[in-house]
């Protein structure tokens, strides 16, 4: 297969949907001689923030001189974003070559999209080869396709209600599923968690004889300053001041993510992974993780953010209120059917001067008219059948002192980035 054929084949697997379970994944990897067993991992789960933490961990390890892999999902514009080697996307040639190798066995087993892209990542990382991989889980943890590895450390960011049709309807049930990535004797790092979630993690750690490390016990981010393009703070690890960090990811929640990432890296240092203090500074200061409260244009002023659940919308709203209080905020907004629409609207409506509601290019996109009804006249809204139509209409309305915030879905943010590229060519 050439690259386009490989991409088309991969997307064709979406017809199989989600099939949680590890049997197919283990059989698939057995047929490839288990490349995943040749790699060292930092395995990261959570409702929000796990991609940011993964990106930070990878950036610091790369700054320390290691060959690194980064596996995240979903992507914004290009599926190859999910698999990065030393910070660069896997090449089209390598993507097509590995996919060609995978296709016969995947056809026989009816593997899912996520299983195949995960297998492709494992093969790529082992072939490169990398020293360490920051590996983000997909859905949940216990039955997630990534969970066939034994990491050096398991990491948990915040846990909230999500994917309740698959993971359960209560925080404790969701935490139980995510806790399934904890392996025997492997230390576990946690950020701030709801009490019910923390108890599930504690119980699983005890069952697996895994040391529990609370991020704030190892690391602190003090004197936090929120700016439009960064979050600045003093980083302390194990009571030693590392220095003043200018993290190019805005938002108070990113300081909390940095604390978790630094704690996970500190645990790696406990296990003889050499990471100098300067590597923490250099890696965190240069991390690249698009789509997170990212300013993509200043005339018109446009911020993109992949928030898609109430917890993430609350973080977005807090940042907008703190940093952009002097702006009139207009949202370009779309949501998928499996998200909590009422709670999302409840958070965003008080901030909005207007909302341009769009249909995201996905079969799971929520009807813009249904979203409009939820706003219930509290805010002026307009609906559009495509992201392109809504975005172009919005920027024609732009006036100085206004800010457009694009949010609600990775798909939506990716489409807007494509549209901005089209308009600026």
Written account of the structure:
With 425 residues, the protein is of the alpha/beta class. The chain has 2 domains: 3-218 and 247-285, UDP-N-acetylmuramoyl-L-alanine:D-glutamate ligase (3-Layer(aba) Sandwich), CATH 3.40.1190.10; 294-424, Protein-Tyrosine Phosphatase, Chain A (Alpha-Beta Complex), CATH 3.90.190. The longest helix has 19 residues, at 252-270. Helix 8 (195-207) links the parallel strand 7 and strand 8 (212-214). Helix 1 runs parallel beside helix 4 (92-109), helix 4 (92-109) crosses helix 5 (113-127) and helix 12 runs parallel beside helix 13 (341-348). An 8-stranded mixed beta sheet has the order 4-3-2-5-1-6-7-8, sandwiched between helices. A 6-stranded mixed beta sheet has the order 12-13-17-14-15-16. The chain has helices spanning 3-12, 23-31, 50-63, 92-109, 113-127, 164-167, 171-178, 195-207, 215-218, 252-270, 277-285, 310-323, 341-348, 368-375, 387-396, 410-424, and strands at 40-45, 68-71, 83-85, 88-89, 132-136, 153-156, 188-190, 212-214, 219-226, 231-237, 240-247, 294-298, 301-305, 328-333, 352-358, 381-384, 402-407.
Q: Concise description?
A:
The protein is an alpha/beta fold and 425 residues long. Helix content is 42%, strand content 20%. Strand 7 (188-190), helix 8 and strand 8 (212-214) form a beta-alpha-beta unit.
